[in-house]
Specification:
This protein is mainly beta. The protein has three helices and 20 strands. The protein has helices spanning about 185-190, 210-215, 260-275, and strands spanning about 5-10, 10-20, 30, 55-60, 65, 70-75, 75-80, 85-95, 100-110, 110-125, 130-140, 145-150, 165, 175-180, 195-200, 205-210, 220, 230, 240, 245-255. The strands form four sheets. It has an eight-stranded antiparallel sheet with strand order 8-9-10-11-20-16-15-14.
Length: about 280
């Protein structure tokens, strides 16, 4: 049975969180909308059926796939493997209309690889913008060391995705993308920056790393092939998660009506991160 929770901001519905999906390996937010009701996420698009709105998706946790789809194998390419894990909802610490605190277990092959503490909040910024404050802590509870990888660390250049990932709607024209000092997919993809903005038909998203460690992670950006932005945990090298260790990341996403320019995006990010 699929189980969902609704997210609201300033008295308006802005998202639905599917926390116990019947046919997907992880919880996710979809639809997410602007305050005016414009959808800014996409679920199971034809080009990548394992893209699920906004979620935490990792293609390689010590060989197990928490992203969906095929696994990139060095010297072999994308390969269908029986290595898929599940992010299982274990319970709420808090579940209010404007946010929640959730406990999850990352399970594979009959055992728990990681425990996650997830906090999500919807924060009002203006009459036309709100922010999704999303943090996650991944703890290795077992006696053995783990590591997080990506297709890039397994031999596919430029494909360092894995971590917080947002699939935006595909429109007739590709969305504009820019950062504090750069414009275009090629200029922002694979680079660390305080924030990166994606702007489509009547909507804008601005993704910001809200901690020093998160800001070190490069952005994974796609606009031409499909519209998506992620914060990469393992863009160039595997991320070790020793026994007992915890990996913490926090991404704040501004969700705005209209097309923001660079100055407007920067101003809303400052407000959102300090809200």
């Amino acid at each position: 049975m699929t189980t969902t929770a609704l997210l609201s901001c300033a008295g308006r519905p802005v998202g639905r969180y599917t926390y116990a999906p019947a046919d997907a390996g992880r919880p996710y937010l979809h639809p997410v909308t602007t305050l005016a009701g414009t959808p800014v996420t996409e679920e199971r698009p034809a080009d990548h059926v394992h893209h699920l709105g906004a979620s935490v998706a990792v293609p390689d946790v010590s060989g197990y796939n928490f992203w969906g789809g095929r696994t990139f194998v060095r010297g072999q390419g994308p390969t269908a493997l029986d290595n898929h894990g599940v992010q299982r909802h274990l319970g709420w610490k808090l579940c209010d209309p404007d946010g929640f605190v959730e406990e999850l277990g990352w399970e594979a092959d009959g055992g728990a690889l990681l425990r996650e503490h997830r906090t999500v909040a919807a924060v009002a910024l203006s009459d036309t913008a709100w922010a999704l404050d999303f943090s996650f802590s991944l703890t290795n509870p077992g006696p053995g060391d783990l590591s997080i990888g990506s297709p890039a660390t397994n031999g596919r250049p430029g494909a360092g995705y894995g971590g917080f990932f947002w699939r935006a709607p595909k429109e007739t024209a590709a969305p504009a993308v820019f950062g504090p000092t750069a414009d275009g997919e090629e200029a922002v993809h694979g680079r660390a920056a305080d924030w990166v903005a994606l702007s489509g038909d009547g909507w804008s998203l601005v993704f910001a790393g809200a901690t020093k460690e998160t800001r070190r992670d490069p952005w994974f950006v796609r606009t031409a092939e499909y519209p998506g932005v992620g914060s990469s945990l393992a863009a160039a090298a595997r991320l070790p998660v020793p026994a007992g260790a915890t990996v913490v990341r926090r991404i704040v996403t501004v969700v705005a009506d209209g097309r923001l320019d660079r100055a407007g995006a920067a101003a809303l990010v400052r407000r959102a991160v300090t809200a």
